[in-house]
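Interim report to the steering committee. The following record documents the input for N-acetylmuramoyl-L-alanine amidase (265 residues).
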Amino acid sequence: MRIMLDAGHGYNSPGKRSPDGMREYEFNRAVANYARSFLQNYENVTVYFAHSDDRDVPLQERTDKANRLNVDAYVAIHANAFGSGGWTSPSGIETYVYTSRPPIATQLAQRIQRNLIAETGLPDRGVKTANFHVLRETRMDAVLVECGFMTNREDIKLLRSETYRKTVAEAIVNAVASQFSLKKNSNPNPPSTNGLYKVQAGAFQDKKNADELVEKLKQDGYEPYLFQEDGLYKVQTGAFERKQNADALVSRMRSDGYETFIHLD
């Protein structure tokens, strides 16, 4: 199963921050990172990100990527706000689906909403419909989750908390796993105590060749990074504590035509 996680907005999106300065993207990306980590515990699951830490990815680019990769589910993660910039009273969690209420997306939204309310204890603002771009322009089941109000003095304390961010991610992942009958890895490898398993896709003397590979990998939905070592420009993607997760990425990349190997760093 292919799942796209969308940490809404970006570090520098205008206005997307709490009255005391927390950027919404800080919360959104943390939850997305935790969710990806949890999803790696399930069989045959591939996780993509619609967002980037380098720039605020336009909405059309996010949905085009999801459609091009033909993902099965799209989950947009947000923190809510109310008013014109100061502290306000609205609090709680709400989950959105498109106005046509697609059946599977609606069921997923209901599961996510139930889990989040049960795990966080915040007010239940319900499952709602909206004509949001990421719900309208995606060709797969899509939901958007508002995980608390940045403009509420109590909610913002939670939104800043790593414990709360992890709880939100786990509640979302448990709902996804239940909705799509995902199976836990039956024989998970123990975490590596020596470093992280990284997948290398190429090593070049000419940086131009490395840059071209990075761009191609991005177009295919991967998240590569480039660094220089031993006189070579190396392109890697993924960093895993468990080797079987790196093995799964190698298998997928090889099926896409890439020559890869696993590097323990």
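The chain has two domains: 2-179, 197-264. The committee is asked to note this result when reviewing the revised timeline.
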